[in-house]
Write a structure and sequence with these properties.
The complex is a heterodimer. In chain A, 67% of the residues lie in helices and 2% in strands. Chain A is mainly alpha-helical. In chain A, a hairpin with a 2-residue loop joins strand 1 and strand 2. Chain B has a domain of 129 residues: Alpha-Beta Plaits. The longest helix of chain B has 15 residues. The N and C termini of chain B lie far apart (67 Å). Classes of the chains: A mainly alpha, B alpha+beta. At the A-B interface, helix 1 of A face helix 2 of B.
Chain lengths: 346, 191
Amino acid sequence: MDMHFLLYKFILVVVIFAITLLIAMYSTYAERKVAAFLQDRLGPNRAGPFGILQPLADGVKMFMKEEIIPNVSNKALFVLGPCIAMLTACMTGVVIPWGDSLIIGGKSYSLQISDINIGVLYAFAVVSIGVYGIMIGGWASNNKYSLLGALRASSQMISYEVAMGLSIIALVMMTGSISVKEIAEQQAGGHWNMWNVCYQPLGFLIFLICAFAETNRTPFDLPECETELVGGYHTEYSSMKLGFYLFAEYINMFISSAIISTLYFGGYNFPFMNDLGLSHNWITVLGVIALVIKFTFFIFFFMWIRWTIPRFRYDQLMNLGWKILIPLSIANIILTGVVLYFKSRF
Amino acid sequence: MQLLTNRSKIVVKKQMNFWEKIYLPAILGGLAITIKHLFRKQTTISYPEQKRAFSATYRGEHVLKRDENGAERCTACGLCAVSCPAEAITMVAAERKPGEEKMYREEKYASVYEINMLRCIFCGYCEEACPKEAIFLTDRKVPSLFERNEFIYGKDKLVEPVEKSKRVDVSKRQTQEVAEFKKHTEYAHNH
């Protein structure tokens, strides 16, 4: 634990934190632009060229708004809610390997903040804490709509977490590791060493659907569905506290996209990476670009889905979670087990 | 039951088959439809910079025309007010004094002529009714204003300027029939 190591980790943390916030900021812009383009509109184009400064304008607006804490609310918890939502959203990025490693001056610097050997579990644990942010915020507002939204959010997140975890178990059985870095490394190379999605298509599908539910995105955005619950759990929030909730959603979306690309789409690996004959550092840089392309696609996919599929009814949501996704993921586990057994036998 | 048109569809509550039940093909179809819109031409325009062309028959803010000598054509006959289905036009007639021949074309003129733009439905009946070719609807827009009484347009806003260069062009609104009629020089007002 020398100073050198601390400095390197510190820089990495700051850079990844900044990039996370930047991507979340521009996701809000991208969301509006994608929405506009999918609806044959132009989208925001006033602030800066092509409206590129729109997130800044939105941020300034959020900060300038009056901060209202309702009289009847539980004030400490009311403030705590968005804090937890934001904190947990930012914490998940720690275990994601953003790239392989850079060799500078004979030393190898991994582009992952922490390669803990239970990385997948850690990500799930932190994401599940995120529900407390919504739950506490909704409850502390002392508002019926907020409470309903919070209730929906927590029941939805809990039910979909089960299916999500089960779909991951099949993947873990196959890879034999729950370190995110190791799962990514196993998909390396190019000679028909295929990404996990080719071996686990059903698991991927379940994971994808659950990721939508976990991040409260349409078609599972019941916790904040405007047509029924005003604003859902953040009805009473204003100013930057509301901004934090919305921001946390975009960070979650980004992190989910990154996790999906890492677990199922090879992470920072890209086809024929070992046949290019480039130096290790160049391969790493190209790998980071590959990962950026992958998660950008998934962020776009989140938005694409939003403007395609209408919102679920609440009972349909529960039906899908408990009666379809969980049995399916259990079937997927059994199938994976059977295939693995026969593979080891013959 | 006798069908009046062939367009009605018989509704059947059909049981969904497996592929319809898992919804994935339908979702993929939906995604294909939405992604097509990504590459379509946008229908909105950046308004203040770009403006859509009006149709040739657009009926906007009215104008009270002057003749070629700069005298007001309106004689306050009241036909426009009578024809107005929204009752938006009111006027007060006055008699031309000696020496005002340059200002008013005929012996009678409208000393007050008001159109309530909030009542007006821009149907164009007034210009059809006008025997003197005095009132026309133009391709100008009535702006949005803050006060209701600002929408009552008096002669100060309706009558076109005397200067030839600032006259309002209404050639688009003058129909073939009007142009034909203007050729008949036996009528006094066609001179």
